[in-house]
Amino acid sequence: MTPANPVTSATSRSKLALRGDLLDFTASPAWGQLDSPAVRFQPDHWLLIDEYGRIAGTQGQEPDASWTKQDHRGRLILPGFIDTHVHAPQLDVIASYGAELLDWLNTYTFPAEQRYADPALARRGAARFLDALLAHGTTSAVVFPTVHKVSAEALFEAARSRGMRLIAGKVLMDRHAPDGLRDDVAQAERDCVDLIQRFHGQERLAYAVTVRFAPTSTPAQLAMAGALCRADASLYVQTHVAENRSEVEWVARLFPAARSYLDVYAREGLLHPRAVLAHGIWLDEADRAVLAESGAQVAFCPSSNLFLGSGLFDWVGARAAGFAVSAASDVGGGTSLSMQRTLADGYKVQAMAGQRLTAWVALHAATRGAAEGLGLQHEIGHFGLGTLADVCVWDWARGPVAEARFEVARELHEKLFAWMTLSDERNLVTSLVAGRTRYQRPT
Ligand SMILES: [Zn+2]
Prior knowledge:
Bound molecules: zinc ion
Number of strands: 16
Distance between the termini: 16 Å
Radius of gyration: 21 Å
CATH architecture of the largest domain: Alpha-Beta Barrel
Shape: globular
Helix content: 25-40%
CATH class of the largest domain: Alpha Beta
Number of domains: 2
CATH superfamily of the largest domain: Metal-dependent hydrolases
């Protein structure tokens, strides 16, 4: 998006100082702890961003005249959100009625994805998708395009032109999908190798070997995906696992030799510290131990899990087992790109399981926790010195209900929990990516 504010645009290469209430995390908050030492809250402070778009520090006193200043006094400044599981082409099918996972794919999703074979449509879709992320306060994402190579190219190019941290890869699916959405092992491998050479490790882009889910890949294709990972340990993996009970039963029929759904991936070498598995609802103790051992993380997608009736993710069980959990919208199974709405749904899912999700655990999972799970804590997710300034400025409250609630909130957790529950993209004032304004709310 072209910066809407010409002043900001003209000064985007100078040193920038943002004034507001700064909040980030220095560590992982303990489950259930409201007064957490992992929270770094600096009310009415300045966030300093150097001429290279990196965080240069925070301070209480006003910086000198060499800094361009933006005064956001009385607003909340957070690291940009990281959405660890979202489908770019599914903006077209968000909020589709009346289906569980397998019906939903066949009825809504696959027809929408077929259209992304068209390069012009893929480019328009990628631009619209990334601008929508930025307009929701999400500055980094792990993204599924479609099976079409051109859809991955379009997504990478669009992220590059916006300076965004993006992890993506051409979707692999060579069976159980309609015409126009299947590849074959040999062509898919050639496409992956070409995309890896052109985009992986370039600027802020990284390649993820992207298996849609076990049912839509033949054993030969899964073996090819595993071979790509073994050949280059810096590659990510993204896929789905154990989302829905019918899906789990189908996988058991398709892969009778595997101990479990997760084991289908484990056997092929697809579980490693750079793997992001969406959902992970229907796992057993042995699966949880395998996940912890592998270093892979699960992307918890509460909005999607509720909307598609998939099930309740056991976050406490994940913590007990010791694997990382991040937060994700899973649009279009999820119903909003807003991470606040996602996290507020996460609270409700945990409440249904008799657990209480603090704002700290939730917000950490969408910022520093997600960054650590991706091995990117040197770059994103917090205000540490030298990280890139992917930063969002938010109104604490908008509208009479939220404003009245904020007015009577006293404790810091109370304020953040109310913010997480009552706010959404309408609270977003501006999004910066590496210190440059990439979204500005119209005035
Ligand atoms: Zn998904």
